[in-house]
Write a structure and sequence with these properties.
alpha/beta, Rossmann fold, seven-stranded mixed sheet, two-stranded antiparallel ribbon, 6 helices
Length: about 210
């Protein structure tokens, strides 16, 4: 089964609060985004945002230039339905992040909680990093969270990669300066605990994008 078919099936058959990665509020992500100091007008993209409630809390906090990208139309539809009229204030992109046509230097801040760890093929990880290089402004902010080294080996029936903070940063390399990393104990709706690692990086001013 292709990834898009898998995720459409998941979000078409389950409520958005009945999946293991559900958070009533993405508190750690929201705190890290606010701590970057980007203005409320900053262009922020939430990669794999799908049905996540992060966009709700970003809107409530006053951020006004938001993009949510997800492979699943059903996930995006769930978020739009939840937001109602406020959904019109968000740009919604149904796309594979490794292949999406994103604006060059279009974003001040890139956020991803748990897409990157699904990229088990080296070429997909490389394509993802090149997307970040192209689409994040020089000096821009990158917050990526994955399963930690002691996290699950599978999610939603799919294999995943697990990382220590230094290993995650190494995937992105010299064009990104690691400023902060921290762990999270995510409590799933089913009463289990999953270990995540968050890395906050800045894209260096002189980085060179691959054409």
């Amino acid at each position: 089964m292709k990834p898009k078919e898998h995720w459409e099936g998941v979000y078409s058959s389950k409520a958005s609060n009945a999946v293991s990665w559900f958070q009533e509020h993405a508190e750690q992500s929201l705190r890290l985004i606010k701590a970057t100091g980007v203005p409320l007008s900053a262009a922020i993209i939430d990669v794999g945002g799908g049905a996540s409630t992060l966009v709700d809390d970003l809107l409530r906090s006053g951020y006004s230039n938001l993009t949510v990208l997800d492979l699943s139309a059903a996930a995006l539809s769930a978020a739009k339905a939840r937001l109602g009229a406020s959904s019109g204030a968000v740009r919604w992109l149904e796309a594979d992040v490794t292949r999406a046509e994103l604006a060059v230097h279009g974003y001040d801040l890139w956020h991803d909680r748990a897409v990157f760890h699904f990229l088990t093929a080296a070429q997909d990880r490389s394509a993802y990093v090149q997307q970040v290089l192209r689409s994040v402004k020089p000096g821009g902010h990158v917050i990526v969270a994955t399963f930690a080294e002691d996290g699950p080996t599978q999610c939603s029936g799919l294999p995943v990669m697990r990382y220590r903070a230094d290993q995650l940063h190494a995937q992105f390399g010299e064009p990104f300066t690691l400023l902060q990393h921290e762990k999270e104990e995510h409590h799933t709706p089913f009463g289990t605990v999953q270990q995540f690692v968050y890395c906050y990086c800045r894209k260096v001013e002189h980085s060179v994008e691959q054409k």
